[in-house]
Amino acid sequence: MQQLSPLDQILSNNNLDADLKEIAGKVSKNERISEAEGLLLFEKADLGFLGILANFIREWKHGDRTYFNRNFHLEPTNVCLYTCKFCSYSRLIKKREDGWEYTLEEMLDMVKAYDGQPVTEVHIVGGVLPQYNFDFYKTLFQKIKEHRPELHVKALTPVEYHYIFKKAKVSYAEGMKAMKEAGLDSMPGGGAEIFHPEIRDEIAGGKCTGEEWLQIHEEWHKLGMRSNATMLYGHIEKFEHRIHHLEELRKLQDRTGGFQTFIPLKFRNKDNEMSHIKESTVVEDLRNYAISRIYLDNFEHIKAYWPMIGRETAQLSLNFGVNDIDGTIDDTTKIYSLAGAEEQNPAMSTEDLVKLIRNVKRKPLERDTLYNIVQDYSDTVFESDNLYRGYVSLPVVNK
């Protein structure tokens, strides 16, 4: 007798809550769940149930394939006009001596430091300041492309673009077109936080609204370009705010198809105005990944940002809907380490990432930013051994 799959076992369980069973039936038939059903998952579903549903979708879309890329981060400044309560990264202008503000030449030198290395992407995001204006970023993108045309420039969030375009007196459509012409290749997903004004006004008042964030991405998508999306969870928001956020993303994706990856970002409480709020548990983190995978049926990829949650949780997430764990980072980002993330000096070699993925029986694929496969590491054997503690290493064999 053939053994039932985990999902079939759920569907044949007569003791399961009828509403949850109906959701499982929809997932098995690749049908969209409603906002009410998404909220029900947050309120009633346990981790095991969510993992089975999310992993079914993950494997239906991707099998065991798990993606990563070789990237580095360029953060122009951590001084900022805005005072988001959750932020441990930025420094107010009146305390700018505690921060950094790189010049154009310094940023280009940082890019040139990677000459000859097989990185495929530079990720640019930072604080908002007047000198980093429309012309500054156009020039930065142009000069990066002049120096290294093949390097993918993934840069700036709608929070930055909203300020830049408003100051330059250009529309979102005009501004995004100009950035594309200057060399911008894609947009990261940051600055989304929580879209619902009830929460957004409380934790991030003053910067672009949720609606404006979505509008800027929509204009970018209209140009035939791709972007990512995020959600900051685990602070003062409620489950209904998370579902509202996911629904707004799903609706925009229905219109444009321009999002390629969704990244849930865990709130960290070190050295910010919300330090009194207890952080979410690993169980809740995994539940949130799983529900995101189930709800966002029109998103191809769900990413776990490993420096934020740590390597072990990133491994676990690969069974809860996640099929991407970001990139090598190369110790070039301070945004999350300053907030008390699990990885205080976030850097992993390609070998580290490959072994991390393989040790949970997944297939490691290096991608570029747009998910073109650079190299399949499924059968690659490395000379070195035991590069990081706590993970089983492969035998030492010649390359």
Write the layout of secondary structure elements.
Blueprint: H1 6-11, H2 18-28, H3 35-44, H4 47-62, E1 65-69, E2 71-74, E3 79-80, E4 91-92, H5 104-112, E5 121-124, H6 134-147, E6 152-155, H7 158-168, H8 172-182, E7 186-187, H9 197-204, H10 210-222, E8 226-233, H11 239-256, E9 259-266, H12 282-295, E10 301-302, H13 306-309, H14 311-317, E11 324-327, H15 350-358, E12 363-367, E13 373-376
Parallel strand pairs: 1-11, 1-12, 2-5, 3-4, 5-6, 7-8, 8-9, 9-10
Antiparallel strand pairs: 12-13
Helix pairs in contact: 3-11, 3-12, 4-12, 5-6, 6-8, 7-10, 8-10, 10-11
Short description:
The chain has 399 residues and is of the alpha/beta class.
Report on this structure.
Helices cover 40% and strands 14% of the residues. α7 (158-168) packs across α10 (210-222). 47% of the residues are buried. The chain has a four-stranded mixed sheet, with helices on one face. The chain is of the alpha/beta class and 399 residues long. Mean pLDDT is 88; it is low at 331-344 and 385-399.
